[in-house]
Amino acid sequence: MKICVIGTGYVGLVGAAIFADWGNEVVGVDIDPKKLKMIESGEMPIYEPGLSEVVLANMKAGRLSFTTSLPRGMKDAEIIFICVGTPQNEITGAADLSAVWAVAREIGENLDGYKVIVTKSTVPVGTNERVKKIIRKYASKGKRFDVASNPEFLREGSSVEDMRETDRVVIGSDSKKALKIVRSLYEHLNTTIVETDLRSSEMIKYASNSFLATKISFINEMAQICERAGADVSEVSYGMGLDKRIGKYFLNAGIGYGGSCFPKDVAALYKTSTDQAYDFKLLRAVMEVNDRQKDYFMEKISGHFGKNLTGKTLACLGLAFKNNTDDIRESVSIEVVRTLRGNGARLKVFDPEAMENAQKVLGDEMIEYSEDIYETLKGADALCLLTEWKQFSQLDLDRVKKALNGKVIFDGRNLLDKEQVQKAGFTYYAIGKRTNGGDYKHFTGVSAILEDVSDE
Ligand SMILES: NC(=O)c1ccc[n+]([C@@H]2O[C@H](COP(=O)([O-])OP(=O)(O)OC[C@H]3O[C@@H](n4cnc5c(N)ncnc54)[C@H](O)[C@@H]3O)[C@@H](O)[C@H]2O)c1
Question: Which of 205, 337, 346, 356 is the least buried, fewest Cβ under 10 Å from its Cβ?
């Protein structure tokens, strides 16, 4: 099939490359010429494991090319995928759909024969119907087209693999012809293909992301109770996750979720609910809990050092919003670094992939960008673990001890083994567990129950 993919970011570039790898002829379109120049010269604008190989192989095979011209990119395409960004509007919380509307208009203006226009970007209910109206408005009379929704579920850090082996494909359309054409693209995959209407398809994406965010906020609430009551949230999460109805994923307590999807998608779904005069209370709580989690981590640091961190040097490992990516959009790790600096600390930071992106937003004031893990720790008063990179969970505690000045670790992702760390002589703070760093005197714990027993 001939395919045009508009927007070559995390979703569009991976999508274009994988569609080409499946034997299709794909043209990627982006308004950013620098990005396309990089790709064409063999350098990926984003870090994704396995992406470079699949892009370069398909470019070489002549199945994948790029252009900044939408009319040129869509000329012979049977399917056009819209993969542009839909960031959060800071004031209303709604998704900013200006890029989607702009693309829809340009598609309409250049429509030269029947095509299926498919939205892969995450868009609120009703968006595809408006896309259809815009295209109809700008297309010349008699030009035929259909629209379809095909939300993307890939995860940054494993997106190439995720697109190849997806749990499900969701396609929404009111046109049987469009459903059939989009379906034929995925039919060879060993997966369930859900065919539905436009609005349900759009809603499936928001419901999925919001549910995953809910799991994270749920376990973060559990962390609060566990720490107060003397239980260990990692043990609780492991025990819960073995239940197939619950599942072990997205049950790690920490400093909260971030990234370019969860915060904006939860906020957008909440906005959709209020637009329908409905207060989605659970989602409101999910957002509140997530915002609080970072402060809770900061309280552990100020509890140890005092709020004013002037004269202290903190080593921070992890800047990306999650492991295996260079993406720092809405990264809680970046927010923590900013807050620590705001409280007067000097910082030494390291991330395996996100250093360049982080430096662009954080600048150099009070921050030293280190070459590797142990270089970061040298001379620091404490270590803060902020992103769940695998290598951070495998720290050599002897080397950490030698490098760090103060023997204090604040583990914002529960990456380390509590017993081992404490045995090695560190003062350890984690999320949702009692450690030698905590001061629990103000928690009543389970004393009420124990008192009842002693009274008998
Ligand atoms: N990143 C993820 O993990 C992920 C997963 C699933 C769904 N999504 C959704 O997919 C969409 C894209 O996300 P992303 O992370 O790939 O965004 P991104 O910011 O990485 O990429 C968007 C790209 O679109 C380009 N663009 C913007 N306006 C354009 C226009 N008028 N014409 C051509 N190109 C244009 C930008 O230059 C950019 O390269 C969003 O709606 C997002 O919510 C993202």
Answer: 356
